[in-house]
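Input record, target 12 of the design panel.
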């Protein structure tokens, strides 16, 4: 595959303006957990964002410590709270530093890793990362958080591992000075086969994807928890039921084995999205500017960009069947700080399919909070996971508002990092929330239909059709031609439950509505 890089041209486009942020409702323990809330440490006053802060928002990074499990017993349900001590520093550029106080997680194959209950600076989104994206996290990750408004602790909540939300393997055409080939990526423009979800995390990624000087990390899906100032986390190791290994190829169970070792460098990431961007009082999302405008504001904020390498053809109108362009909140509209992401853009040749995702986060948010959630995901993907930009091309909230995701121009074939093995010639659309058991809102389904109809229509693609994509590795053997719906779920391209059973069940509706919007 080939990823194309382009410089920016044009004039600044109009940014969509958003509703003010509304605090998330108090979240208390629902009684479903038998664990009592951990002891409280002193709660600090909220810190105001300084006017001279170079980047709004922050990320606190806390190391996990390994806690040996008792023989034949479940790990401790409530690790005791530790003294608050020094607060975690914002580690935007130091999270790779080894913490000598943390045990070597890779050597403790029967341990539970914990972050003891503590008071921290206010944050709103939480996730777990580890040293290498090639390593799998064999364990159940759980967090509980303390709400700023009520001071009450939540029940334990699971974080999903999502290796399939990832950049593809190394792409041809990346300049040598565009970050270079990162660890695990091939230097000749080719890469090792990625591994399926049940055999390991994706392997090598595009050299142009990672943040320069940093190795892409493994990560869970981030979880929006709302304004919080306390946190506790644990990782319960995977163990086969009944003390026996799962059945092998012959169908018989094997002898008991110990839990898989945990990956190295486990850290709990706490993301503060920062304040809302300045606005003039308008509350409606306006249509985005044309592509020249989109690229111009990215250039001004992002600084010098890499030279153009194989600039893709401008997006063309489909022959015969097009759909109206929906309203899209720009990156400027949701408050993207362009200084966070890597300069330049990655492009693919065209768009033949749209992959629908859920973010696997909380459904308990107000629509006015969606920009904050997206800023948090953006920061988590870039600073915690070490990607070049947010992975999705578009995001949709429960009220049906559509947001621009990865930079490069909403009408152009921007290469995302959303469906490992099939990021080439596709676009990724993520609905905020988790839809394994919760039905997505009608407004969200309608919005996915509209953005899909327009984006596929630019390339003459029928939303009710099928296409063949070349696998870059993962669920399907690298190089194989795979027949997929032009509107597919993440699970169609990767071994994952995403976008959740209830959203996946709506894809037939999305295809039909999108086709009607194209006049088919």
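The sequence produced for target 12 reads:
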């Amino acid at each position: 595959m080939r990823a194309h890089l382009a410089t920016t041209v044009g004039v600044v486009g109009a940014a969509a303006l958003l509703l003010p942020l509304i605090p998330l409702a108090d979240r208390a323990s629902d009684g479903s957990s038998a664990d009592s809330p951990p002891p409280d440490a002193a709660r600090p006053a909220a810190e105001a964002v300084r006017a001279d802060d170079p980047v709004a928002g922050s990320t606190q990074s806390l190391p996990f410590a390994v806690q040996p499990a008792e023989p034949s017993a479940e790990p401790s349900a409530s690790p005791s709270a530790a003294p608050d001590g020094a607060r975690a520093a914002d580690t935007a550029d130091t999270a790779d530093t080894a913490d000598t106080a943390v045990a070597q997680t890779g050597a403790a194959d029967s341990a539970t890793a914990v972050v003891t209950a503590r008071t921290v600076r206010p944050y709103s989104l939480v996730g777990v990362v580890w040293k290498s994206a090639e390593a799998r996290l064999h364990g159940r990750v759980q967090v509980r958080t303390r709400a700023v408004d009520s001071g009450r602790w939540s029940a334990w909540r699971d974080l999903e591992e999502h290796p399939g939300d990832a950049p593809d393997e190394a792409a041809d055409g990346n300049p040598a000075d565009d970050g270079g080939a990162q660890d695990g990526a091939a230097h000749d423009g080719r890469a090792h086969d990625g591994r399926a979800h049940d055999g390991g995390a994706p392997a090598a990624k595009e050299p142009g994807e990672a943040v320069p000087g940093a190795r892409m990390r493994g990560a869970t899906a981030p979880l929006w928890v709302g304004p919080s100032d306390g946190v506790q986390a644990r990782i319960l190791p995977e163990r086969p039921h009944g003390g026996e290994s799962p059945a092998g190829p012959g169908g018989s169970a094997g002898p008991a084995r110990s839990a898989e070792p945990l990956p190295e460098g486990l850290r709990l990431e706490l993301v503060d999205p920062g304040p809302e961007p300045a606005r003039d009082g308008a509350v409606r999302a306006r249509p985005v500017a044309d592509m020249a405008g989109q690229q111009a504001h990215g250039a001004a904020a992002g600084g010098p960009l890499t030279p153009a390498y194989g600039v893709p053809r401008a997006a063309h109108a489909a022959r015969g069947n097009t759909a109206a362009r929906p309203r899209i909140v720009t990156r400027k509209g949701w408050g993207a700080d362009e200084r966070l992401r890597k300069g330049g853009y990655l492009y693919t040749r065209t768009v033949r399919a749209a992959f629908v995702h859920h973010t696997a986060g909380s459904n308990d948010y107000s629509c006015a909070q969606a920009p904050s959630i997206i800023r948090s995901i953006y920061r988590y993907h870039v600073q915690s996971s070490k990607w070049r930009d947010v992975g999705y091309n578009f995001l949709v909230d429960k009220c049906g508002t559509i947001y621009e995701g990865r930079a490069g121009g909403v009408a152009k074939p921007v290469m995302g990092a959303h469906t490992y093995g099939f990021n080439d010639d596709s676009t990724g659309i993520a609905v905020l929330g988790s839809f394994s058991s919760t039905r997505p809102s009608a407004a969200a389904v309608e919005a996915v239909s509209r953005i899909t109809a327009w984006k596929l229509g630019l390339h003459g693609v029928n939303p009710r059709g099928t296409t063949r994509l070349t696998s870059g590795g993962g669920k399907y053997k690298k190089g194989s031609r795979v027949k997929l719906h032009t509107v597919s779920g993440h699970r169609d391209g990767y071994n994952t439950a995403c976008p959740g059973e209830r959203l996946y069940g709506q894809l037939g509706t999305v295809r039909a509505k999108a086709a009607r919007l194209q006049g088919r």
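The mean pLDDT is 72.
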